[in-house]
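Lab notebook, bench 4. Still working through the backlog of constructs that have no structural model yet. Next entry is a single chain of 260 residues. Request: give me the structure tokens for it.
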Amino acid sequence: MLRNKTAIVTGSTSGIGLGIARALAHAGANVMLNGFGDAAEIEKIRHALGTTTSGRVLHHSADVGKAEDIVAMVAATEQAFGAVDILVNNAGIQFVAPVDEFPGERWTAVQDIVLNSTFHAIKAALPGMKRRNWGRIVNVASAHGLVASPFKSAYVAAKHGQIGLTKTVALEVAETGITCNAVCPGYVLTPLVEAQVGAQAKAHNLSRERVIREVILAAQPSRQFVEVDDIAALVIFLCGDSAKSITGAAIPIDGGWTAR
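Model written out:
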């Protein structure tokens, strides 16, 4: 389906990003992984994905909080594969605190990793996409890009900004073969969320099952976690020709959370 296409997926050494990278590899794309972690473990991931695709899989250790690293990653991908056809902006971090107690440096870090990295990656990848009159940009936003929750001011602001950027880019490239969309997952059982479940269970003296249903998934009407594979399948669809008229969209995949 995506044979001879090349994708960058930021934050793809674990969690949602890895699931998306895996799906892109299965679809035949070349994939540039990105993210931090143990070098040996990342190499195992890269090698495993490489065995599932007709393309190649590489890794770039860019710190997406730094604009110059992002520019270097896009350039390295173009040099290695000849193009960047698909850009998936997935990298993200979270910090929780009341607004009046929110550390300024944490606010800045969230904006840099979530919103600013999306801008710099799109800016770097767009010229090549325009030359080829084809491109797919998918920003992994969040249900928190559509609605808010207390104590998550930086994340909510960054994700709302990411969706605004998605719409602006889509309008600017509407007459080309490039689309720009956002997917907005609800809660996904990533390692980060699993750690939150354990912490909440201990803090409230509740079972894991009650924490999941009554605390973590309280806002998610399905009372089920969104599956990584389902998010990845949505991204693959948006990258295909059948989605060429879908652009500027912010698509919830959240078990009904934002339907309230």
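Notes after review: The two ends are 36 Å apart (CA to CA). The beta strands are 6-9, 30-34, 57-60, 86-89, 135-140, 178-185, 250-253. Flag for follow-up if needed.
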